[in-house]
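Quick check before the chapter quiz. The format below is the same one you will see on the exam, so make sure you can read both the input and the output lines.
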Amino acid sequence: MVWSISFDPLVPQWLLITAAFVTALIAIVLGFINLRGWVLRTTAMALLVLALANPAIEREDREPLSSVVALVVDKSQSQRLAEREDTTTTAAKELQSRIEALEGFDLRLLEARNSGSGNGTEVFQTLANGLADVPPERVGGAIIITDGQIHDVPENAEALGFNAPVHGLITGSADERDRRIVLETAPRFGLVGSEQTISLTVVDQGLGTGPGDQVNLTVKRDGSVVTTRTARTGEKIDIPVEIAHGGDNIFEIEADSLPGELTTLNNRAVVTIDGIRENLRVLLVSGSPHAGERTWRNLLKSDASVDLVHFTILRPPEKQDGTPINQLSLIAFPTRELFSVKIDEFDLIIFDRYVRRGVLPMLYFDNIARYVREGGAVLLAGGPDYAEGGSLYRTPLAPILPARPTGAILEQPFHATLASLGERHPVTRGLPGAEQDPPAWSRWFRMVDTELDAGHALMSGPSETPLLVLNREEKGRVAMLLSDHVWLWARGFEGGGPHVPLLRRLAHWLMQEPDLEEEALNVSLRGPELIVERQTLGQTANDVTVVTPTGDRSELSMTEQEPGLWRGSIPATETGLFSISDGAMNALIHVGPQNPREYTDVLSTTEVLTPVSEATGGTARRLRDVGGDLDLPRVVSMRPSASYAGNGWIGLKATEASVLNGVDRFPLLIGLLGLAILLGATTATWYREGR
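Here is the expected output.
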């Protein structure tokens, strides 16, 4: 119960103040002239003014509220190092039982985890969220179990939003030491084939370390070692790296471990550089004129990433009609420049219905075969020319061509269909209309009959005759389209067909686009999840093993999304390098910033929390001495004080917050009691006047 006096005036406040002023003035005058009975007169007038103020005694029925205490447990990645996780678990369990044993306190157990945003350990954000629904006057304090590496400590105690002690209990030991790599500069993009520079510094911290020690660095690209270097701790070093392919080039730079160091996780820096290709150079050589001669040209010219060089053989050397050279608009075919001097500058050579007419000497066909074996690409789009005497198969190109002509030409209507392997190959998988039988695209009317010597048939014609054949020849690639009627799709005959996706994918597969690899393991980050995709020509895909930045391993089951494509997902709960493997292939991905704050400094410390703890009357202390046992402080309840910590104990604030259940009001000068008091005062005045 709480007792108090309140006023509820019966007249306006200005009138009450005026009456009190007049009463005081009269009392002063009467006292000054010392009029007989002036004290009783003044008392009677004062009681009348007091009655107009309507005083009353109030009795409040209040129920005390418990104090809310937050126990924040740091579950960030750095808390998994050494014995910190065991220390945290034991301390949290014991403190929870001790706080729950205190009368008048409610415990809120909060866990601070890495958000994956790269902002590090955000303990005070977790604390604010956990106490958001608690009035500031009910907060009795906060206890934080952490290694001290907190990245959102407020600048002052007022920013906490409550007036109660904050205690920091620090895991880890004072004798820790660690080595880490600090990235100074790293490029985000680079042209394929160019050399970029990564700048970094190796830093040693903790007991017995200092700058100047020599350390070995190992540089890996996509998991394979490319070079080794030496550096000195504390000194900046520049490391040149080559951008080997388009897409993500993941470079790992790893330093030798420091004897007795806390962790080797931050001995490794990861840099992802996006390889950008210069415009792809394509040489298109058109031979025998036909209705679809411009199909390839139009397609390649519409691709902004392709630089096209196109020649059409209209005047072979044997054609001599006596026309003076200076009157000809045709130019000579620069065979030597294209197929000898600059052949390696092309990413793809396309022969569109090319017929041997003596334009290219046999030596140049040898050059083309060598070009393919050393990493180049050739596409043969053939018609009747491939089955006749002028066929390219009757040149030194024959060893790299996977389909051998029988000499027959099949001329009949047919629908190009996907072979069983074509349903799973990324070049032909999911072509619009392929899901129907027959496919929802126009018929073709001619193709070359061949026998397959190598490679894979992705599309078939009548009687399963190979129509589209792909093959790898050492480092290079070869493709053969054994019909010259793809132009019917481009012209919209019988509704047309998917010539653009088919021919574009085919060209980019030949130019070794990573997204079109038949066997590939890819991983990407979509929101908070890692998406793992396995492209395979096989009927099944193995489950993959995911290794997190802290070394935890887990198995991820893959689910078939469409023929040849399997997918699985896993939450990306950590920051750093994830490694994915299915036993045959490996993939890497880096989550978060290149210099994650969580591993910038992993040594446990009391210095970060000490300012805010001392400002609130709390303390920041270690849970273990060097080589010692766990030393948990006692937890005691205290009234509001300037200090809430001492030797071997920490205090929590017992607040005085309460909830009002009801109020009883007893007026003093209204009713019989008030009337009796006023009549008594008036009677006493009259009595004094009558004497």
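If your answer matched, good. The mean pLDDT is 86.
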